[in-house]
Amino acid sequence: MISKYILTVSIVFTMMISAFSQSENSLKPLLIDLPGYEAETASGSSMNMMGMKMINAGRSYENNDAELSATIVISSLANSMEQFGDVELESDEVKATITTIDGFKTSHAYNKEDGSGSIIVFIAEKEQQTGIFSFSYEGITNNQAMELAKKFDWAKIKTEIEKLF
Asked: Cα angle vertex 138, ends 133, 139, to 5°?
């Protein structure tokens, strides 16, 4: 009797782990090929521990002059940007903005001196979870980076994130 109980619990637990570990696999196809760039195979991971949940998928890209990284993250630790209005800050070294693009709150920081930066798109939020798309870059301008980041289908990413909440 006890062995049947242990076997049943083990099977259920294994199925739960298996289902959760597949979560990042649904995000990987959203990390598209970019024209003119070589890309690694997308990778990902999932964690669910003591009420903290994190799922991520990432992919790196490069060409002769630039290195890029695209990541989709669902986390109970990420902060929302919904409370922030539009912000623009610029100096000789840095340009930073928070604005809404195509209906998504977006943060963009660009280091003018070394041509590096990051774009964070706040895709979706539910209760204590936030889903973001992050695009880091080096060796291209901030405008080129935004053009490349927009090649990723943010609406499709939102649909998939919402399935995983």
From this structure: 135
Residue 81 domain-assigned (yes or no): yes
Domain assignment present for residue 102? The answer is: yes
pTM of the model as a whole: 0.84
Q: What contacts 70, CB < 8 A, 6 or more positions away?
A: 31, 58, 59, 61, 133, 134, 135, 149, 152
pLDDT at 96: 95
Domain that holds residue 55: 23-164
Per the rule left: phi > 0, alpha: psi between -120 and 50, beta: everything else, 51 is: left
Residue identified by tokens 């973001």 is 132
Counting the structural domains of the chain, the total is 1
Within a domain: residue 34? Answer: yes
Question: pLDDT of 15-38, one tens digit each?
Answer: 344 344 458 899 999 999 999 999
